[in-house]
Design goal:
- The structure is a single chain.
- By secondary structure, this protein is of the alpha/beta class.
- The protein has a single domain, classed as Rossmann fold.
- Strands 2-3-1-4-5 form a five-stranded parallel β-sheet, sandwiched between helices.
- α5 crosses α7 and α9 crosses α10.
- The termini are far apart.
């Protein structure tokens, strides 16, 4: 079986190389590089229901594994029509090489970190402790809300800050916010399609949103601002982590998060 897989993988790469030598590489695919708990399933499913798009998996495995892009999968899907894929992948030189080679339009989906901690806390309690950003134990899941929030900040938020910092260097990426996606989904998806050199059709977007509506989108509560009641200890721990990136002191995303932390701390006193 392994030998068959190796042969199939080699054939995909050879086929892709041959076609690419004849046809130009166009930015026609969409890579949703996303923070966990940022509405990425909702966004990706909506685009997958847009005409001529389909959803594919570009990581060879998931679970607790880092979701790095797989070149074999890219070669397999590259010349078979437009696709969209969501991956919790940080930016790197290798990722940029694959983006250029396979015509990916990177869309970076972010969400306010205090809101993410609350959403991740609920996810750990209700669904699964498995995540690629941290190792969460049974003992962690049994902590009080305040304790679990602080644990998640200490263990998971470093990954989120790393994600944001690496993608902030990518000049070819479109950054969109969870808050905008929830508030104005049609306009946000239209921006994503334009980024992929596709003229958006509002009727098609609205139809895609109708077709992908339902529980499979993993939106949970689907509102912004839940992190305003983040515990004091979690707020302080997050602020300390953000202090390690003084380069982002004037970054709008960092400024907004610090304002949320200040509001939460003030309301707790």
């Amino acid at each position: 079986m392994r030998q068959i897989n190796r042969v199939a993988s080699a054939l995909y790469l050879l086929q892709d190389a041959a076609i690419s030598a004849i046809l130009p590489t166009l930015s026609r695919h969409i890579l949703v590089a996303c923070m966990p708990k940022s509405g990425s399933t909702f966004l990706t499913n909506a685009i997958a229901h847009y005409p001529q798009f389909r959803k594919v998996m570009l990581a060879p495995a998931y679970d607790q594994r880092e979701q790095e892009l797989c070149q074999i999968r890219l070669s397999r899907y590259h010349n078979r029509g437009k696709f969209v894929s969501q991956e919790h992948v940080r930016n790197s030189e290798w990722t940029q090489r694959l983006i250029a080679q396979y015509g990916l339009s990177p869309v970076v989906l972010i969400r306010d970190l205090p809101d993410i901690v609350v959403s991740l806390r609920d996810h750990v309690r209700r669904e699964s402790r498995t995540t690629p950003v941290a190792y969460i134990t049974k003992r962690h899941a049994q902590q009080s809300d305040s304790e679990l929030e602080t644990t998640l900040v200490r263990l998971a938020i470093p990954w989120y800050l790393n994600f944001y910092a690496t993608w902030s260097e990518a000049t070819n990426a479109l950054t969109i916010r969870y808050e905008d996606l929830i508030r104005t989904p049609v306009a946000t998806i239209a921006d994503v399609l334009r980024h992929a050199n596709i003229q958006p059709n509002e009727n098609h977007i609205q139809q895609a949103l109708k077709e992908c509506a339902g529980g499979a989108n993993r939106l949970n509560v689907g509102v912004a601002g839940r992190g305003k009641k983040l515990s004091s200890s979690a707020c302080e721990a997050m602020g300390q982590l953000m202090d390690e990136y003084p380069e982002f002191e004037n970054d709008p995303y960092f400024i907004r998060i610090r304002e949320m932390l200040s509001t939460s701390l003030a309301s707790a006193t």
